[in-house]
Structure formats: C-alpha cells, structure tokens
Amino acid sequence: GSPSPSCVSCGLQAMDRDAEERLMTEIAKQQILEKLHLKERPNITHTVPRAALLTALRKLHSGRVRQDGTLELENNIPTKDPGYEIVSFADISEMESGEGASLTFQFLQERGQSIQVLESSLWIYVRSSEDPHRDSRLPARVFLSAVGEVSGSNRTLVIEKMLEVQDSNWHTFPITRTLQSFLDSGQRRLRLEVSCDEDGKNLCSLDGTANSAYQPFLVAKVRLRDDHSKHVLRKR
Amino acid sequence: SLRCGNVVSVCCKREFYIKFKDIQWDEWIIAPEGYHMNYCIGQCPQHLAGSPGIASSFHATVFSQLKINGINTATTSCCVPTERRPLSMVFFDSQHSIVKMDVPDMIVESCGCT
Predict the structure, then answer these.
(1) Per-residue DSSP letter, B11
(2) How far apart are CA A110 and CA A186, in angstroms?
(3) Does the distance separating the beta carbons of B93 and A73 come in below 8 Å?
(4) Taking the alpha carbons of A42, A47, A51, A56 in that order, is the dihedral positive or negative?
(5) CB-count exposure of residue B69 (10 Å: 0-12, 13-18, 19+)
(6) Residues of B with CB below 8 A from A32's CB?
(7) What is the rounded distance in angstroms from the CA atom of residue A23 to the CA atom of residue B55?
(8) Is residue A80 classed as helix, strand or coil in its secondary structure?
(9) Mind giving me the DSSP string for A15-53?
C-alpha cells in the first residue's frame, strides 16, 4: 500500500535523522573495536613526544608524513591472515654502574591470546664521537635483565655488535627471539640494558625526556597464532 | 553499483563517514582521520536478482542458472556488498605502544543483489 519509510515488518517507528546518525556512530565504533581486537577504546594518559612518534612511524614504513605532520597511509593489501606491527616506546632509567641505561617496555596480552613474533628490532640513536680522530667502530651490547633485579646484575647478553659510526644516526638490534620468548613467558615488562661504551662514555642516546626525537623504541611485526583454535577443535 | 539518494528503493550503497575528531577518537587513532562505514540497503526485486555485473558471488551464478531454466526458486534476493577493500589503521594501545594493523574487508565499495 502506502510507501512507508519505516521497516513495516520490524514494527519500528521511522527514526529521525539524528537518532539514526547516533545509532550508526555506535555501530561504527563497535565494528572498529572488534576489528582491532579491542574490548574498549584505549585510555591515553600521556602523549608520546611528537618528534619520536613521527620518527617511529617513518621506521614503520607505514606511509608518508605530510607537511602538517599528519600521516598518509599506504593501504597494504593484507595476506589472508593480516599481521600487525607494534612500536613501543621505552621507559628509561640510568644503570647504577653508569655503564648505560635500562629500557623497560610494557606489553599487554589479552588472556588466551598467543602472539607469534615475525620480526622485531630495537632502534637506538647513536651519537658520533666528539673526537674526530677516534676509531669509527663502537662496540654495542644489549642485555636482557630480570625485572625487579638491580640493573647490571643477573642479565644475559642478547646481542653484541660492532657499530660503524661515522655520524650520529639510528642503529637497529634484532631481538626477534628475545621478544618471542618474553611473550611466551606471559610476563608484562621486558627490560633491556644497552651500553655503547667509549672510554667510559655512553654514546647511545637513551634520552627518554619529553619531546626527545631520539627516544629509543622497539618495532615488532606480529601475528595472532591460530593454532590455539585448532587445538580447541582437536579437543572437540 | 548504485549510490543511495535520500529515498531508498533499489539495492544501493549508502555512504556513512565518521570523523574520529568528532567523537574524540583522534586521541588514540593516529591514522586514518575517519572511517567510511558504507553499507548496502534497498530492495532486490526478482528481475534484479543475480543480475550479472551487479552481484559477483557464486550464489548469483547458481541463481541465474536456476532462473534461466525456469526453475521457480521461491527464494528472496538480498542486497549485499559485492566489493570491499582493506583499511590500514595506526593507533595507540592501552600501553601507549603504536600498533599498525591492516584490516581486511573494512570498507564496502559497491553493493549488488544476490
């Protein structure tokens, strides 16, 4: 009979435009949280230094940074099982020995979630030596230290590299296996100690102060493991 | 694919864009600046059901064969997405880490009748 904008079979009254807009907004919010595997929107208590953020995003190859600092993303066509990439900024504390600094990264894994680390690296900004005649090679070491222990004690060497430092620049340290065993252990805080020692002076910039463009960070490409569901299937 | 106007009749794509700044979600979503949550709405009368080029699903192909052979399908045809594309998102998680995720099939590009 008469055309009615409402859904006759549903028995609902026609919504006014605002109510419909509000409803659609709520649906969009739920859809985005679900697709990002989040229960609720993250509560951001402190801002990451903008310079550090832009540096990290550039390392993520996640697109181009426009003049106004906003990000233009490249839409990657994801594989069937899209992984995702994480950039985590460290909380930094000086080591008592003065040898370097201790970086603490926090990770929160949802209960029942199992994460596979495809690749991970630690990014450290290393300054060039003030002595122009100095050998450009610089020994750098990264240790994994037990959380809660005095820094410098009870730690294991993760990687040792001889850096070629002509001028100040970023250097990466692969920590894929370290991060994988850390996540598998279910802990929440990963603590790494870094030392780039030159005659008692630490050339690694471990400056976590606000607005520091050289804040060390960790990049990881990860994927949710799906063998967990298969396991459940086997149970049935 | 048809784009819906104000009055909806035949299967079409209705565009709906939400700007994260408007809902204060730009505090934790770094990029993109908004989300196109388009959706499909409208009727799929018999003569549009499974029209080639409108619906590219396997279901449409089978449906066409049944119709061509005059078999009464007595089934209804639905207005569904026929093309979708992924969306890359970069956001802060609760640990203030930055996460970049490519979410498949996030944006409806076109609609059609099954």
Answers:
(1) S
(2) 10
(3) no
(4) negative
(5) exposed
(6) 35, 89
(7) 28
(8) coil
(9) PPHHHHHHHHHHHHHHHHHHHTT-SS-----SPPPHHHH
> A7 in the Ramachandran plot: left (φ > 0), alpha (ψ -120 to 50) or beta?
beta
Q: Which residues between 20 and 79 in chain A have a beta carbon less than 8 angstroms from any beta carbon of chain B?
A: 24-25, 27-29, 31-32, 35-36, 38, 41-46, 48, 53, 56-57, 60, 62-63, 70-78
ipTM of the complex: 0.78
Q: Is A6 on the interface with B (CB under 8 A)?
A: no
User: Both tokens of residue B114?
Assistant: 């099954």
Taking the CA atoms of residue A19, residue A23, residue A26 and residue A27 in that order, the dihedral angle to the nearest 10 degrees is -160
Give the closest residue to A180 by CA, choosing from A109, A229, A124, A228. A109
pLDDT digits (tens, 9 = 90+) for A69-94: 455 555 444 444 557 888 888 888 77
Q: pLDDT (tens digit, 9 = 90+) per residue, A9-66?
A: 444 556 687 888 888 899 999 999 999 888 899 988 776 777 777 777 776 655 555 5
Q: Does residue B86 surpass a pLDDT of 60?
A: yes
Q: Is B72 on the interface with A (CB under 8 A)?
A: no
